[in-house]
Amino acid sequence: MSMAETLLISSGNGPGECRQAVAHFLAWLEDQVALYGLDLDIAAREGAHGPSSAVVVLGGTGADLLAQQVAGVVLWRCASGLRPKHPRKNWFIQIFRLTPPPAQVAIDPGAVEMQAIRAGGPGGQHQNKTASAIRARWRDDKGRLWSVVVRDSRSQHQNRRIALERLAALIAADQAGAEAAAQGESHALHHQLQRGAPHLVFDGPAFRPAR
After folding, report:
1. Could you tell me if 202 and 74 are in contact, meaning their C-beta atoms sit under 8 angstroms apart?
2. Is 158 within the bounds of a domain?
3. DSSP string of 37-79, one letter each residue
4. Residue 141 lies in a domain
5. What is the distance between the terminal CA atoms of the chain, rounded to a whole angstrom?
6. 79 falls within a domain
7. pLDDT attached to residue 181
8. For residue 111, is it within any domain?
9. Whose CA is closest to 163, among 101, 118, 99, 115?
10. 6, 102, 119, 145: which could form a disulfide with 133 (CB 3.0–4.6 Å)?
């Protein structure tokens, strides 16, 4: 995939509220991607109350700018909904870029389920209304399902090729994120979070950017 950026979003070894913050951040990132007109593929590792971590692959012109804007420490200021009497209101997560981008893995095209769908996403009234967009799904040998939606071209054939590339990039990114966590990078970073100034701050249950 050209013009792609890979991010690891982690709650470190934080409590459930930090995993909630990861989920909120992913939803917020999806809105940002729509504004930028980018592609976004997500592989989340689910835990109690939300993802413990996720890797995302941003694709398209401007992906590097968005990655640069969001990478760093993120603070969510909100009273705990899991522990109403808990005095703490500051929850930290971390976003860092996986550079260089992970090498793509090999996928058997014959094992990938391709479904033609109507294109959606950015473009408004000018977006492609024909069923040329492709949803590609592939299940690995551990039973985990991977899925991407490609609407880059009006050609189904080209979108199928791009879908295979994006699936391979997403799986490679997830593997790289898992390796980073296994090496203790996210654990070590988490212990530095509260001592550092956050790069981005969000407030309240609605996860709104701080003014």
Report:
1. yes
2. no
3. T-EEEEEEEEETTEEEEEEEEEESTTHHHHHHHH-EEEEEE--
4. no
5. 35
6. yes
7. 64
8. no
9. 115
10. 119
- Segment-wise mean pLDDT, segments of 10 residues, the chain, 211 residues: 77 90 96 90 86 87 92 94 91 84 78 81 46 83 85 76 85 78 55 67 96 81
Predicted confidence at residue 176, as pLDDT, reads 77
Distance CA 147, CA 138 (A): 7
The CATH number of the domain holding residue 197 is: 3.30.70.1660
Q: Kind and range of the H or E element at 176?
A: helix 156-182
Q: What is the pLDDT of residues 153-185, one digit of tens each?
A: 667 788 888 888 888 888 888 887 777 666 655
Number of domains in the chain: 1
Structure tokens at 47: 């835990």
Angle at the Cα of 33 from the Cα atoms of 28 and 55, rounded to 5 degrees: 70
